[in-house]
């Protein structure tokens, strides 16, 4: 059985379970369920705190985990990222009160509050800055108001929490994060159970990002049309009963589908259809 760690709460929990469900795995119905066996797919899911997942996977107790890149790197565990999942995107940034500190190089002697001390200490060391780091569990933004620190380092998604706390971002992001699949460093790369799991997850990513496009076009225009819809490998071209015309079928990125349909229409294509992809293996 493949043993997989999934966030049991927090920002990554629901989207991770939704993606696993879309990939055909059983998921829990009750948030208090901590272990779930999917016998049909030979997978056992462990619902764990996202912050602990890299530790379990890095120690080899679990084969695979879904967690945030920021949590993985903060943990220092012996695990590595093997697939990006395209949700849970955020940046990890420094912030402070306006018109105080403006650059990391000025952090010397200050105190920085964060829930990610591993990330912050590494970043400060890379910049040769000597600053104190105070670890807090959450609501880090309030640490400045309460005088615990002069600077914070925290997850920023929309920036709303920072704005409401009257804080401003300092400098460039320390890290761009998103949900990722992780494995123990040095684990058997070709494990067929792991390969199958990754193919399923990649199938969901493709199904989410692409639609299937079909259209009819005059044979002499097909090269120009195919340039607009090159597909992932190569489009399928089929003859039509109506002489001089062909049917083309190709995958296109969902976000570009409407623009491509306009361009195809202008080129003379007709009966242009898009359909959703429910699942795929590339
Ligand atoms: N808006 C967001 N707020 C918090 N974390 C986010 C957000 N968007 C993405 N994430 C990611 O979620 C992970 C944080 O997991 P965590 O369990 O700490 O979530 P949480 O929402 O902070 O839950 P809690 O604070 O209840 O523990 C990190 O990888 C972080 O980058
Ligand atoms: O940029 P925003 O969209 O405002 O999101 C970022 C905020 O969300 C998270 O807090 P969370 O709700 O997890 O609370 P916590 O600080 O207690 O972890 C994070 O720690 C930031 O405070
Ligand atoms: Mg949080």
TrEMBL record:
First-tier enzyme category under EC: transferase
Activity regulation summary: Feedback inhibited by histidine.
NCBIfam families: hisG, HisG_C-term
Domain of life: Bacteria
Signal sequence bounds: none
A biological-process GO annotation: L-histidine biosynthetic process
InterPro entries in UniProt: ATP-PRT_HisG_long, ATP_PRibTrfase_cat, ATP_PRibTrfase_CS, ATP_PRibTrfase_HisG, HisG_C, N-reg_PII-like_a/b, N-reg_PII/ATP_PRibTrfase_C
Keyword Metal-binding: yes
GO molecular function: ATP binding; ATP phosphoribosyltransferase activity; magnesium ion binding
EC number: 2.4.2.17
Protein name (database record): ATP phosphoribosyltransferase
Phylogenetic lineage: Bacteria, Bacillati, Actinomycetota, Actinomycetes, Kitasatosporales
Pathway: Amino-acid biosynthesis; L-histidine biosynthesis; L-histidine from 5-phospho-alpha-D-ribose 1-diphosphate: step 1/9
Catalytic activity: 1-(5-phospho-beta-D-ribosyl)-ATP + diphosphate = 5-phospho-alpha-D-ribose 1-diphosphate + ATP
UniProt record similarity statement: Belongs to the ATP phosphoribosyltransferase family. Long subfamily.
Cofactor annotation: Mg(2+)
Role, per record: Catalyzes the condensation of ATP and 5-phosphoribose 1-diphosphate to form N'-(5'-phosphoribosyl)-ATP (PR-ATP). Has a crucial role in the pathway because the rate of histidine biosynthesis seems to be controlled primarily by regulation of HisG enzymatic activity.
Annotated Histidine biosynthesis HisG C-terminal domain residues: 207-278
A family per Pfam: HisG
Positions of the ATP phosphoribosyltransferase catalytic domain: 49-203
Keywords, ordered alphabetically: Amino-acid biosynthesis, ATP-binding, Cytoplasm, Glycosyltransferase, Histidine biosynthesis, Magnesium, Metal-binding, Nucleotide-binding, Transferase
GO cellular component assignments: cytoplasm
Compartments (UniProt record): Cytoplasm
């Amino acid at each position: 059985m493949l043993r997989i760690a999934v966030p049991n709460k927090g920002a990554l929990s629901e989207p991770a379970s939704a993606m696993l469900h879309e990939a055909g795995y059983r998921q829990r119905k009750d948030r208090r369920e901590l272990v779930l066996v999917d016998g049909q797919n030979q997978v056992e899911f462990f619902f764990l705190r996202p912050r602990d997942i890299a530790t379990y996977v890095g120690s080899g107790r679990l084969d695979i985990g879904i967690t945030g890149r920021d949590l993985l790197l903060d943990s220092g565990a012996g695990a590595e990222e093997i697939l990006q999942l395209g949700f849970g995107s955020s940046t990890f940034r420094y912030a402070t009160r306006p018109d105080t500190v403006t650059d990391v190089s000025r952090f010397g002697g200050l105190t920085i509050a964060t829930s990610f001390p591993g990330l912050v200490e590494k970043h400060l060391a890379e910049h040769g800055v000597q600053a104190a780091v105070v670890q807090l569990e959450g609501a880090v933004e309030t640490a400045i108001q309460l005088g615990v620190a002069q600077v914070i380092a925290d997850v920023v998604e929309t920036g709303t929490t920072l704005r409401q706390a009257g804080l401003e971002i300092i400098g460039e992001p320390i890290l761009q994060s998103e949900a990722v699949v992780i494995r123990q460093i040095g684990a058997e790369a070709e494990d067929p159970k792991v390969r199958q799991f990754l193919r399923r997850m990649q199938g969901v990513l493709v199904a989410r990002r692409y639609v299937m496009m079909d259209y009819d076009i005059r044979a002499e225009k097909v090269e120009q049309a195919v340039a607009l819809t090159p597909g992932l490998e190569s489009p399928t071209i089929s003859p039509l009963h109506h002489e001089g015309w062909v049917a083309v079928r190709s995958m296109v990125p969902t976000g570009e589908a409407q623009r491509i349909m306009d361009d195809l229409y202008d080129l003379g294509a007709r009966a242009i259809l898009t359909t959703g992809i429910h699942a795929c293996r590339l």
